[in-house]
Amino acid sequence: MTTDTNPSRIPLVRILFAFAAACLITSCGLSLSGGTPKLTERLPAEGGMIGPVEIDDPGSILAIRVYQPIPLGHWSSVTVSLLDAKKQFLLGLGDGFWHEEGRDYEGYYWRESETSYEGKLTVEDAGKYFLAVSAENNFDPSDLGSAQISVTVDDGGLSPIPHRAVGIIALILATAIGLIRYRNVFLKMIQEQ
Question: Rounded CA gap, 40 and 38, in Å?
Answer without folding.
Answer: 7
